[in-house]
TrEMBL record:
This is DUF4062 domain-containing protein. It holds the Pfam family DUF4062. Residues 185-259 form the DUF4062 domain. It comes from Fulvivirga imtechensis AK7.
Amino acid sequence: MAFEIDILITYADADNQPAESGNGWVTDFKRFLELMLQQVLGEKPKMLLKSEHDSITGGDVKKIGILIPILSPSFIASGECLDTLEEFLKAAKSDFPRVFKVLKKPITFEEQPTKLRELIGFDLYNMDLDTGRIEDYKDFFSTEAEQNFWMKMVDLAYEIHESLISLEQKSKRADVKPLFSRRSIYLAETGHDLTIQRNIIKRELQRHGYKVLPDHTLPQNVNELKKVIKKEVEESSLSIHLIGNSYGEIPEGSDKSIVDIQNQIASEKSSLLKDKSAFSRLIWISPHLNHASEKQIAFIESIKRDMASTEGAEILQTPLEDFKNIVREELIEVGIDKKLNRHTEEAVQNGKVKVYMLYDKLDEKDVEPIKKFIAKSGFAVLEPSFEGGLLTLRQHHITNLRNFDAAIIYQGGVNDQWVRMKLLDLLKAPGFGRRKPVKGKAIISKKEEKLDISSYKSHNIMVIDGSKKDSLDSLKVFLEELK
């Protein structure tokens, strides 16, 4: 059934007293939200204000799609406001949110109505960081409001947009089971420094039809928290983690942050999956860590070096805009499968066993004789690309990771860390949709000091001493085994 009222905003009278502009805060909030929703929905929604003393009946409640309670100390103290909320919650049983809590004043978790605590809140007050003083945004169109208030309002508008679409679909297809469910993505909670950036990515994913989890406030107790995260990561086919300067909030009963715990749980899922293409992870690490604490630096280093925490993951330490472009390319605009079709056809057309030769540009000349030797031995040689932008280079690399049969990493002028990162790329190749086993992996190293790959001993990697004259003989043995 279609609702007579799309959105009802309920509030305490004290929060809508006329200001200098002539309107009360709630009235201006409704007008501003109406404008934003009109842009997002393409049409003006049916919105209504309800003060604490306006009466509402059970029958009227069923005609409302979404409720926005304006939370404040006055709202919490008002029996009428709480009754309206309770009446709506009774009628609005749903598997997606139909209540969006807006905080006009700070309200602690414990002070909030029990059924609203787990919902994500939209804080629409201004806090002076120097004095700690809380103020309303008096002018919704001021520069200050544009920088802080508008971003939260845009978030709210997109969340409401999602819910209204779901309500409309449910109304039209009440008796029809959907043929497929939307793909879920776990967009991990971040430290305070990346909250806005996370919300931008979240909105873009939602606009393109993805269900983004978590879609509620996470529990504060570590045991409950882990249960919820595990459940939602299990529902997802991808997790995205943004790591910045802030280590993040530490829940009760834990010495690890929520950011850390989410990464650990996503890693555990990756390690247990036989089909690595069923779940993948994107981890972005800020290239600017000047203000990171020692604990955060240690956490970041552990992500980079710990095989367990990076299994099935792609780690990128690039400018955030580049990372957003990668997310957009991979999940939104084209989808990685469609993007790589042309390259896939080129890679398999000759029917030969394909050897991916991984090397750095500074070793390009040294690698030439090795590539010729491999080609003369009857193999197709896949190579890295060094021309083009970040997205082009990455797509080329992923194409090769999906299609190689065997891989050889060449170490000439590069350090051991570079080699380990390339090994990690090979091991996480299934996360990019690879469907066939790897026939062989080898490293050709010209370094005098022996390369330590003891942590990879279970992965059957052949190490060839590239400084010896008979190194090509060792390479020949490796190639023969591929046949």
